[in-house]
Write a structure and sequence with these properties.
- It is a single chain.
- By secondary structure, the protein is mainly alpha-helical.
- Helix content is 67%, strand content 0%.
- The longest helix has 22 residues.
Length: 249
Amino acid sequence: MEPLTDWDVYRQASLDMLRGLNPMHTPLNYLPPWMSLLTAPVAILPRWVGYGVIALIMLMVSIIAVKRLGGDIWAILLLCTTPFLLHNILWGSLEWVPLTGMLLPPAVGLVAISAKPQSGGGTVLYYLVQVIRKKLSFKVLIPFGVVGVLGLLVYGYPFSMGNPPADVVRSASYAVFPWGVPFGLALIAWAVKREDVWLAYAASPLLAPYFTSHTLIGPFLVLVTRSKRWAVVAWIVAWVYAFATIGRV
């Protein structure tokens, strides 16, 4: 039987790692090994218990992020009822990992953020630019480098990476690549000028050749804490699109 949710894939990858296998050889898993290590404690739980834990973590991290950005109860309600968050919960997605990385100091957060480039690629570029500009210490890159080197030593280059099948990518992706890249880079440049890392985070999907509706939780979170008027518009559009495309991943 094929996996029913994203969590089924990630759970199996973690279990494979615990058996001494390369988690990136798990069918449909293309996340780096440290993600499988992170989710291993939840993966050993019964399937539906682990699914519930992942869903609860997603909800809690999202609410904490809204509060961190100064959002009120209405911002929380908008976020919690948007298709993006509900889709994350229903599919057992791990979007909470890069989102948690945004809440942590750069040196630690960068490891989590880089695990999903379609969600945090803009933040990675932002931090690199800030290091070059000497706004951040080079030391913030050390944990990320250590994790990368360990991955190379244990699993080879580049972690013997597997990729999702092309038909899965085409059917699931909402990406506007490469047309979105100039807009994404412009948004990151603006973020650097304003020293606004969350703006860079919101730009990430514009740079990615692949992302699903799960990924849009980041941009919507930033929007809902800065402009409720436009957030309501985005909320309505998202639900109209969701109902119009029922059945799409």
